[in-house]
């Protein structure tokens, strides 16, 4: 290993730690040691320090012993005649630098509270508020799920700036095509990649997977902290278990660093720190390389890579496997563009929403009635209208095949939303008969037409669901009379489907389905999905799993023969227990589908909501991941997820989907929905229609009005008088811990 590498990284560590010590002293002198510090809305304190050392840094005073730890970690300076053959001293210097930088960034939140945009996904470019800083736990969980399900295979952390905005755009768009997130930090002579991308007309923010963390190298801690929070939240790793955490990062979080521009000593220290994670650095300048394999999967530092080869080389060095979908359309295509917005001034053509009717329908067809790949546009297309025009739209997809079933229609139909959204310059919102599509100027300039929507649906549905059908034909209607006719037909079909699904119960089938998708992050977690218990992530129901198994018989959704019924009220079957024991590698030998107190199902950090027992109120509460406030169980959602997630069964707590709240088997053993005493106000509004319907079935039609929310209180003591005043039925039920 080059002596220059060791010298630069260790010197950089000294520089960073010394600056941080001075910064901390100044802050304590100014604000006092009891001044609170931290990142916004997170249960993980300063996440690198918390995950590696297990220390909760809540005040400036708490940071003092950490700074002493940083100083102790620094190895001796590299001297002229001293050869450093091992990585160990560099790794220590890098880790010390990252601890120190995390403290510096936390102090910045105190000294410059408006420097970063708090708890938002997109920068406010119009008001020159570019930097997003630390992602809060809501964003982390929302985006972290994509690393679990594979839609985001990894991330590229880019520091510095490219020689030109066009080069920066080309590098970043290449990563977008491969579905990676791009985390941006640091500057090169005052220029940042984030600013270059804006100049090149590229939308940045979490929605497009291009995240501008900050203008200084210290902002690199937000990328590594994001990765560590994923390990804590989804992987069930305990704070302070640094060996498991760093192994988890190397084996499950596929990330790397691109250093664009001259690499100084402080950058070198950050690169050395990232090697602890197994994240290599690929640079465009001539810096000493570290090529032998060891901590990273392959090389540790690779230099002088031409700009047009940086993405490919980075992916190769990290050992990342990516698949890119090639579709014959004139715009770039991939999940990275799903969150892209087409603003009003950039709209060329608008379809649906509040301006016209737009409807989507998928129907099974006779094999001889359609031609595979045939795309019909009946009515005017993009070339027949001018900028600012409005058209109605009907998307009618016909599928045929021996394995195709009517029950698979809504599953294919739900894919239309994200498949169209993956096209750069196209925005799709809604589904069924409330669809809204915007076609942007940029897409039209590249030659995009409505026929390309048909091309996308044909290619992607064949790719993702081709096992269950042989032919697919798409008709796009843009004449009002045709759209109205399709809408009438579609509404009849929607109604029949809903009634059929609603009629399914856990008793009407002998087969449940597993979902082990989250095991990539939470190895012991196994979801059992039944007709009356949707997946806890909210994304999968029983029918989805059935289709998934038909498509991929060796995939994460496997049929589970229920077998002997062991306890009808708890929801426990011999076949389910046997499957769970095998799928969790013996870590879990049984659980109950219908209970929160007695051996509930395992929970993963991907869950959409978490229910908890409130003993004083003799009921349960639930909180969804979009609610950031305190709850009556004494924990925020982020803390709950970190406590009960990771694939463990925790009596008194259970993760679940929002839809599951109004299903008939929801926590039936303890009394089900009649036990619900608190939930966030916005969640009450979101599920109101289904909640009221279920409450009527239970004989308490005004139950939702008796359920407290944060406007009533966020402790059991605060909400109990409200429940007593409203005569909530939970107060008259048997003790919840005695059932």
Structural class: alpha/beta
Biggest beta sheet attributes: 6 strands, parallel
Q: In CATH, what is the class of the largest domain?
A: Alpha Beta
| CATH domain fold name of the largest domain | Rossmann fold
Query: How many structural domains?
Result: 3
How many distinct beta strands?
23
**Beta-strand percentage range:** 5-15%
Q: What is the overall number of helices?
A: 22
Please characterize this protein's 3D structure:
- This protein is of the alpha/beta class and 739 residues long.
- It has three domains: 3-318, Rossmann fold (3-Layer(aba) Sandwich), CATH 3.40.50; 335-496, Bifunctional carbon monoxide dehydrogenase/acetyl-coa synthase(codh/acs), Chain M, domain 3 (2-Layer Sandwich), CATH 3.30.1650.10; 506-732, Bifunctional carbon monoxide dehydrogenase/acetyl-coa synthase(codh/acs), Chain M, domain 5 (3-Layer(aba) Sandwich), CATH 3.40.1470.
- The strands form six sheets. A six-stranded parallel sheet has the order 3-2-1-4-5-6, with helices on both faces.
- β4, α10 and β5 form a beta-alpha-beta unit.
- α1 packs antiparallel against α3, α1 packs parallel to α4 and α4 (88-111) crosses α10 (265-275).
- The longest helix has 29 residues, at 3-31.
- The chain starts with a helix and ends in a 14-residue tail after the last helix.
- The mean pLDDT is 93.
């Amino acid at each position: 290993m080059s002596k220059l590498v060791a010298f630069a990284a260790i010197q950089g560590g000294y520089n960073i730690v010394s600056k941080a010590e001075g910064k901390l002293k100044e802050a304590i002198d100014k604000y006092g040691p009891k001044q609170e510090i931290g990142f916004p809305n997170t249960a993980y304190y300063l996440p690198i320090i918390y995950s590696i050392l297990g220390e909760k840094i809540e005040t400036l005073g708490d940071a003092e012993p950490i700074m002493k730890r940083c100083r102790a970690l620094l190895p001796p300076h590299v001297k002229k005649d001293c050869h450093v053959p091992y990585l160990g001293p560099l790794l220590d210097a890098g880790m010390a630098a990252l601890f120190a930088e995390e403290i510096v960034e936390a102090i910045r939140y105190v000294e410059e509270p408006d420097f970063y945009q708090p708890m938002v996904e997109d920068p406010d470019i119009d008001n020159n508020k570019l930097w997003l800083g630390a992602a809060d736990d809501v964003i982390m969980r929302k985006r972290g799920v994509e690393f679990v399900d594979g839609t985001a295979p990894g991330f590229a952390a880019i520091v510095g700036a490219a020689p030109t905005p066009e080069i920066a755009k080309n590098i970043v768009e290449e990563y977008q095509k491969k579905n990676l997130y791009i985390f941006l930090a640091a500057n090169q002579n005052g220029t940042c990649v984030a600013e270059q991308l804006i100049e090149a007309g590229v939308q940045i923010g979490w929605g497009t997977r291009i995240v501008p963390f900050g203008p200084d190298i210290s902002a690199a801690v937000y990328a590594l902290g994001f990765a560590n929070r994923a390990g804590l939240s989804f992987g069930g790793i305990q704070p302070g278990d640094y060996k498991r955490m760093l192994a988890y990062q190397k084996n499950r979080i596929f990330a790397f660093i691109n250093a664009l521009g001259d690499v100084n000593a402080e950058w070198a220290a950050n690169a050395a720190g990232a090697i602890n994670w197994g994240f290599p650095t690929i640079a465009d300048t001539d810096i000493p390389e570290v090529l032998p394999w060891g901590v990273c999967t392959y090389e540790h530092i690779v230099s002088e890579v031409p700009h047009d080869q940086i993405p490919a080389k980075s992916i190769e060095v990290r050992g990342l496997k990516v698949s890119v979908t090639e579709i014959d359309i004139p715009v770039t295509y991939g999940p990275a563009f799903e969150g892209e917005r087409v603003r009003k001034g950039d709209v060329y053509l608008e379809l649906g929403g509040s301006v016209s009717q737009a409807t989507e329908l998928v129907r099974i067809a006779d094999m001889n009635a359609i031609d595979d790949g045939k795309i019909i546009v009946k009515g005017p297309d993009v070339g027949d209208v001018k900028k600012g025009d409005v058209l109605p739209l009907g998307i009618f997809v016909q599928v045929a095949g021996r394995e195709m079933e009517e029950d698979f229609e809504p599953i294919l139909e739900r894919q239309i939303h994200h498949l169209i959204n993956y096209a750069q310059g196209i925005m799709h919102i809604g589904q069924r008969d409330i669809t809204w599509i915007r076609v942007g100027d940029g897409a039209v300039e590249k030659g995009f037409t409505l026929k390309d929507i048909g091309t996308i649906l044909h290619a992607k549905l064949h790719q993702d669901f081709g096992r269950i059908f042989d032919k697919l034909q798409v008709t796009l209607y843009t004449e009002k009379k045709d759209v109205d006719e399709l809408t009438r037909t579609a509404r009849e079909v929607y109604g029949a489907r809903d009634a059929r699904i609603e009629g399914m119960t856990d008793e009407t089938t002998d087969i449940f389905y597993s979902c082990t998708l989250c095991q990539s992050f939470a190895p012991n977690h196994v979801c059992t999905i039944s007709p009356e218990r949707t997946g806890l992530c909210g994304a999968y129901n029983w029918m989805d799993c059935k289709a998934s198994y038909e498509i991929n018989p060796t995939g994460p959704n496997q049929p589970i023969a229920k077998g002997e019924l062991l306890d009808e009220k708890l929801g426990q079957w011999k076949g389910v227990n046997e499957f769970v024991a095998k799928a969790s590698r013996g870590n879990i030998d049984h659980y109950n589908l219908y209970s929160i107190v007695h051996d509930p199902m395992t929970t993963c950090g991907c869950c959409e909501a978490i229910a908890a027992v409130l003993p004083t109120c003799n009921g349960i509460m639930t909180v969804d991941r979009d609610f950031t406030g305190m709850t009556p169980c004494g924990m925020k959602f982020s803390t709950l997820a970190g406590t009960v997630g990771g694939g463990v069964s925790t009596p008194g707590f259970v993760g679940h989907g929002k839809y599951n709240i109004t299903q008939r088997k929801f926590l039936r053993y303890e009394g089900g929905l009649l036990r619900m005493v608190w939930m966030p106000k916005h969640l009450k509004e979101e599920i109101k229609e289904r909640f009221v319907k279920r409450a009527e079935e239970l004989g308490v039609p005004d139950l939702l009005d008796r359920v407290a929310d944060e406007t009533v209180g966020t402790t059991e003591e605060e909400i109990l008088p409200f429940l007593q005043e409203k005569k909530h039925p939970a107060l008259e039920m048997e003790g919840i811990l005695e059932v």
